[in-house]
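Feature request, filed as a ticket because there's no other form

It would be nice if the structure record came with a short human-readable summary line next to the tokens. Right now we just get the raw output. Example of a typical job, pasted below so the devs can see what we mean:
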Amino acid sequence: MFDTIHEECGVFGVYGQKDRNAKSTVLSGLYALQHRGEEGCGITVNDDGIFKTHKDVGLVGDVFTPRVMEELGEGTVAIGHTRYGTTGSNNRTNCQPIEVRHIKGLMSLVHNGNLTNAAELRRGLELNGAIFHTTVDTETIAYLVTRERIKLPSVEEAIESAMNELEGAYSLIIMSPQKLIAVRDPRGMRPLCYGRREDGSFVIASESCALSAVGAEFVRDIEAGEILVFDKDGIRSIRTHCGTKKRAVCLFEYIYFSRSDSVIDGMPVQRSHLMAGEFLASEHPVDADVVIGVPDSGIDAALGYSRASGIPYAIGFVKNKYIGRTFITPGQTDRENKVKIKLSPIDEAVRGKRVVLIDDSIVRGTTSKQIIQMLRDKGAKEVHMRISSPAFLHPCYYGTDVDSSKGLIASNHSIKEVEELLNADSLGYLSLENAKKLAGEWEEHCCTACFDGSYPTEIPKSTDKDKFEHKISEGVQ
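Raw output as currently delivered:
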């Protein structure tokens, strides 16, 4: 709904739940990961080797009604997924998990990220007889693993072999009749971690906040390139692909994608948000009366800015929590009203005041312009916009919905021009140097491609998920 960058997926899995109610644990995990994907979701339950899957478009609470949950049955193992889809491709078929039935059994797979060589891989598979039912990268991964599984004695060996062909970002949870397997790409671009519950069951999730939601104690992050196998014999780590490629964890995980109560690769996300605000205050000081943040991801950065600058912080907006990002108004004329329905400025906080407005990013600028105008309509004397990330200048090919620079306002206009277009009194972005510090120990090992054009992989030859084009073609999620 908003003019923001959308991360495409969240993944969750549980292995060995003693009360055979694994589906409920996954449901709770998906609620905690809803922010990573609000267009579709799905769950596969494993009941002693028999799989039952339900998936559909919509929010977790809308898709998994009491009746659906009852029909999923019992099981000690289950996986789930929340999804943001490509423009034009949000349908039930493209929702995950992807379930495969092959000569050696069953497999169900969920995926967060985006392959940069998906089009080439898919073309090769199709030329060898593969028939695709979706337009998502995940099905390509499923085909490759299945192809290797037919030749090799175990699913983990099949995954290990398939990884030789995969390029780009992928955090996977793969379920076979007897095993649950977590996989993270060799660059560690998307997060993945696991924990343990009191009943002895193991939980895998995109973010640690989902572990907390199901009462699991965080154990550790899955390492870049690691394959972690959970089965009746315990846990086994396969590290063949570890250290084979330079780390490149997505910097936007610390700026926007991950929830404030998560810890990503050892760095608390809320600390990253607060640091971003503190850096902004030193880089772009201004005389003002109040600091406010755009809910939700701008709030912690606003607190950091306030602490560092000494300018009082105030809650500047009331957010309508009953409207998700999938909310659609019934016509083009109403689109401009979406922000007003979602956010309402608090008159007392801004009237007659010089306001510092903190947000995490600017994409096209349409939403930022409307928010600034809303503040002016409430009587704000000045509005100084501060962004807790560097300027978004280049497309991303690793799991967001922006793969073209054509619609990026910062890519096509100078800072002064953006100020004028937004009707802001001033504008300041976080420097790339300080933004890297938000990743903690991975400061020199994070992906900054969307800010500086330095891609950790080859740029894909073809893509189809450009949010500015409103179209879809064959091949890539």
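Something like this underneath would help us a lot:
The CA atoms of residues 1 and 328 lie 8 Å apart.
The chain has a mean pLDDT of 90.
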